[in-house]
Design brief:
The structure is a homodimer. Chain A is an alpha/beta fold and about 350 residues long. Chain A has two domains: about 60 residues, 5,6-Dimethylbenzimidazole Phosphoribosyltransferase, Chain: A, domain 1, CATH 1.10.1610.10; about 280 residues, Rossmann fold (3-Layer(aba) Sandwich), CATH 3.40.50. Helix content of chain A is about 50%, strand content about 10%. Chain A is built from 15 helices and six strands. A six-stranded parallel β-sheet of chain A has the order 3-2-1-4-5-6, sandwiched between helices. In chain A, α7 crosses α9 and α12 packs parallel to α13. In chain A, about 60% of the residues are buried. The interface between A and B is large, with 58 and 59 residues.
Chain lengths: ~350, ~350
């Protein structure tokens, strides 16, 4: 198993030289320079990550990690806690939103149990069991998890990524790699609460500016949620520059796992499409462990959760889609993957001014 | 050939009853209500348009219409006028941005010459020649076209739509229809100028608040472009409530043609994805002829051209994508078609709370 430190050490800056070459390539295509906006940026970023123009995006993998949260007992969610496990069954039988959208963009979904409260009863090969615990503890009262568990959750994410990355038989003949582009998403009743706490702890923004309605709580419950988070931050005093400390005090197992996926992806030169609010909290953890990871991230969409913008700004990321999504699971990431693919195709399939015999700008 | 009046008469309001049923269907799916935001809206709109849940989006057709503009001689564009014809050749040989993105979403591109300045030399079946003239006149000096030509351009758009709509052999066996969803796009050097003039004439907004840099003119050229449009509006005094008057005085043949496509699509209960700035000016013309057309429109993306927002607001439309696109051709429409498809799949493929055994909100 690759250790967290090893993985972090393997993360390099993007290849600026290749990105400049990509820019030149884009500028000779039959369109006004820059007129395909963010699609061109994506093509450049992917070239910088992969260090080649021959970019394959055949193996699209969405990691949807599930876990439960002790904080749910504070009544911070509109849904009962058993929904986490129920939704995992839904994921593995293909009926959830992420399954539909992953099929739409021809991605596969890797579902993992990082810490669901109950023992899941299934023999499906579509579920990876990597339990760090049976749900976190209620961080209104005590730390969500131990430091060791925080590290184990990140390591589990790395392990799951590596299993898929080196999976044979999935990719084209001659190709060794099983992941060309990754996406991250999650399921965990109450998990906008740890995500908000992580966001406030790391960015330093006020809890009330970060915290939203999650799956749809009312005004009273929202006030309560804010108070719970404020108190927890006062109680635990997480160190904003120690991501493991933040994760252990107010985080979640699936959040740690997704941070691990990001670290592993960056170390393997694989771009990662980050879904919404909770996935972006995981991205913050990865970013604090190694800021270079942000170069590998693509923010999928602007979540309805208001703190999302604050986290994205902290990492200097700009979301691609603005579709009022607030489901999670990786649904926005799936849609955004198709845009990344579009950007790469633009760079590689469009005619140049010269080839098409089109006059350039006067 | 269907006459414009006939087509307009055939346009009906969406089926509100079916839309309510779609909303109920969406609310029983395994997700917090409304959490898939705009994807859910799209599913509802499509159900209202098609009056069935059995929505097929197999035949995706993008209409990319080209034409030249007399106003180009005022130096309002960064590119020389011959680029219009050159780009038509690029479209039919498959090397332009729209070709790449249409392939990406599995749409076909129907290219038509509504008024390119030169006689296009090609025997390609991929180009429809429906010339209304060899470019419009310079509307800084005289009307862009006659009223008759304005009507003919709209009629040509209707005709092109109908040819594709009834095309046999393209669709699945037993299906009569050749278009399940339409998109509109355009090519015409200098055509942000007529589009800006139409927008100002119809919405009443100030020319300087509407007019942008098109393919990339500098500050001086932008000032000049604004002055040209202001003077033209004073000269011609187009009647904002008479779309044919506006189109003939400051419009373009491809813009009239695309307005015709929208009218025809709405009359046939086919949704139309409207690309960027110029396509939205065409949508304004269609909207003024029959406001019900807006119910069939889907705004693809928010253009970099600043007047775009003003036009969308006038028709109460909200763009789906915000990718800093400013190419036209239907490129944004192609990308948005994939989102429409995603919305329909969500409605029809996701499991319900009951089927999946998932507990609903407390």
């Amino acid at each position: 198993m690759r250790k967290i430190k090893e993985v972090i050490k393997a993360i390099e800056d993007l290849d600026r030289g290749m990105m400049e070459k990509a820019q030149k390539k884009l500028d000779f295509l039959t369109k006004p320079q820059g007129s395909l906006g963010r699609l061109e940026e994506l093509a450049k970023q992917l070239t910088g990550i992969k260090r080649t123009f021959d970019i394959k995006l055949k193996n699209k993998v969405i990691f949807t990690f599930a876990s439960d949260h002790g904080i749910a007992e504070e009544g911070v969610s509109a849904f009962p806690q058993e929904v986490t496990a129920q939704m995992v069954y839904n994921f593995i039988s293909g009926g959830a939103g992420i399954n539909v959208l992953a099929r739409h963009v021809k991605a596969r979904v890797v579902v993992a149990d990082l810490g669901v409260k109950e023992t899941l009863k299934t023999e499906s090969k579509n579920l990876k069991i990597k339990k760090i615990g049976f749900g976190t503890k209620n961080f209104a009262k005590t730390k969500a998890m131990t430091k060791k568990q925080a590290q184990l959750s990140i390591a589990a994410g790395i392990e799951i990524f590596e299993e898929e990355f080196s999976a044979k038989g999935r990719s084209a003949p001659g190709e060794e790699k099983g992941i060309d582009i990754a996406g991250i998403g999650e399921m965990g009743i109450a998990n906008t609460t740890p995500a908000s706490a992580i966001a406030a702890a790391i960015t330093g923004a006020k809890v009330r500016d970060i915290t939203g309605r999650g799956t749809g709580i009312n005004d009273k419950a929202l006030k309560h949620k804010i108070k719970i988070i404020e108190k927890a931050l006062l109680l635990h005093k997480p160190d904003k520059d120690d991501a493991i400390d933040v994760l252990s005090k107010v985080g979640g197992f699936e959040i740690g796992g997704l941070a691990g996926v990001i670290l592993a992806a960056a170390s393997r030169k694989v771009p990662v499409v980050v879904d919404g609010f909770i996935s972006t909290a995981a991205a913050l953890i990865a970013y604090k462990l190694e800021p270079k990871t942000a170069q590998y991230m693509i923010s999928a969409h602007s979540s309805v959760e208001k703190g999302h913008k604050i986290m994205l700004k902290y990492m200097n990321l700009r979301p691609l889609l603005n579709l009022d999504l607030r489901l999670g699971e990786g649904t926005g990431a799936a849609l955004a993957m198709s845009l990344v693919e579009a950007g790469v195709k633009i760079m590689n399939e469009m005619a140049t001014f010269e080839n098409a015999g089109v006059s350039n700008k006067e």
